[in-house]
Design goal:
two-stranded antiparallel ribbon; five-stranded mixed β-sheet; elongated; 1 helix; mainly beta; 2 domains
Length: 159
């Protein structure tokens, strides 16, 4: 996942991205993800802009029932490569790389975009019933006799 600044034509072009990123996440989240998509490259005088959206896919745990499944998510990408390393241009929301020429390794920037876009609590399916808070049974696979209407006594006085 590299971009060669020396061979990049001026103007607008496309850059195909396909590969696996080591995300370094833990606690049931994916350690790696496959990413795929096309980024638009705009080669201007003193900067190169990359933007677009990639699709990511990785193995994770459901945020509700803890079953392992394959999650897919969109990864918005916006990266600026400044060729004028003396520029005082601020980052803002855009990831910033400073490099005059040669090949730019986009791996770390794409990894960061992928991690930031990862869903907070991915669900294995939209109607996942989760685990019973009393006995821990997976409600997608079976039922239990636990009372769902048990009210915490601290909240009984509230309407």
């Amino acid at each position: 996942m590299k971009l060669d600044l020396d061979s990049q034509d001026s103007g607008r072009s496309d850059l195909a991205i396909r590969g696996t990123l080591n995300l370094g996440l833990s606690d049931g989240r994916p350690l790696e993800a496959r990413v795929d998509g096309i980024l638009v490259v705009q080669n201007l005088e003193s900067r190169v802009l990359l933007n677009g959206a990639l699709q990511a896919e990785g193995r994770t745990e459901c945020g509700s029932c803890l079953e392992e499944f394959t999650v897919r998510w969109d990864v918005p990408v916006e990266v600026m490569i400044l060729r004028d390393v003396d520029s005082d241009e601020g980052e803002g929301e855009t990831l910033l790389i400073m490099q005059r020429k040669g090949e730019v390794d986009l791996h770390e920037s794409l990894r960061e975009c992928t991690v930031l876009a990862y869903p907070q609590a991915p669900l294995c399916k939209p109607d996942c019933k989760g685990l019973c808070p009393e006995c821990g049974i997976d409600r997608n696979k079976g039922t239990c006799d636990c009372s769902e209407n048990e009210i915490d006594p601290r909240w009984e006085g509230l309407p």
